[in-house]
Amino acid sequence: MDKWKTKIAVITGASSGIGAAITLSLASHGLTVIGLARRSENVEELSKKLENSEGKIIAIKCDVADLNSIKNAFKEIEENFGKVHILINNAGMSSKVTILDESDYATERINSTIDVNFKAYVHCVRECIKLMKKIENEHAMIINVGSILDSVIPYPHRTIYPTTKHAVRALSEIIRQELIVSECDKIKVTNLSPGAVKTEIASEDYFNSIPHLTPNDIAESVIYLLSTPWNVNVTQLTIKPVGEKF
Ligand SMILES: NC(=O)c1ccc[n+]([C@@H]2O[C@H](COP(=O)([O-])OP(=O)(O)OC[C@H]3O[C@@H](n4cnc5c(N)ncnc54)[C@H](OP(=O)(O)O)[C@@H]3O)[C@@H](O)[C@H]2O)c1
After folding, report:
1. Residue 90 CA, ligand 1 centroid: distance in Å
2. Sign of CA dihedral 75, 189, 45, 83
3. Domain count, the chain
């Protein structure tokens, strides 16, 4: 990880769960980590946990469901840091509504899940690549946090969540190929698909009833991805807890 020391990483959804664990882990390896979230105060709290590290954690308030909020966040990053080496698209929400639910509540949940879990990934990549192009001869990496539900189909009653994760998986591969043909081949792209991870995304009772990972398990996998040699691109990484049935 020494090669990434002092480099700039941006992560969405840094205020809890998987994103918070990755933020702390990268900063403790000496990176400057810019954490985007609506609860930016949670990201500020994380920096108090950093001990004996050259790394830094910087919080930016951002609602990734709002394109202007994304644009403003990246403008602030450009003004203060000039460039970005790592983007981790991680902010996400679950959605339990079914396609047959005609309520306004269901319409709102469907739209916001698509906005946060998919459209925000597209827009953060678009904004971030502009700043990755400024690193010239250095290397860069984009990690999209998907889900095992990006390839396990049967999951009724959650209609939109697996659909957005399928889209993210396709997006990851398309970005990788598009960057190569656009001569941005120093930017590696990985789609990271975790199984169940005990976080705020679902209830404690739910996670306690099934095998699950911890957010730190996912942070470890990000360190693995970043530690691969420059010529190695792990394009897809799926991580399940031992005993996960689907
Ligand atoms: N936990 C699992 O079992 C599991 C499994 C597979 C994949 N995943 C994926 O892992 C990622 C992280 O989820 P998690 O489990 O760590 O859940 P979490 O603890 O609920 O964290 C979700 C994060 O997303 C952020 N977020 C949600 N809506 C946002 C918005 N509109 N604008 C900005 N940030 C927003 C939240 O920040 P604010 O609320 O502060 O904005 C929070 O930091 C998600 O993409 C999820 O789909 C999770």
Report:
1. 6
2. negative
3. 1
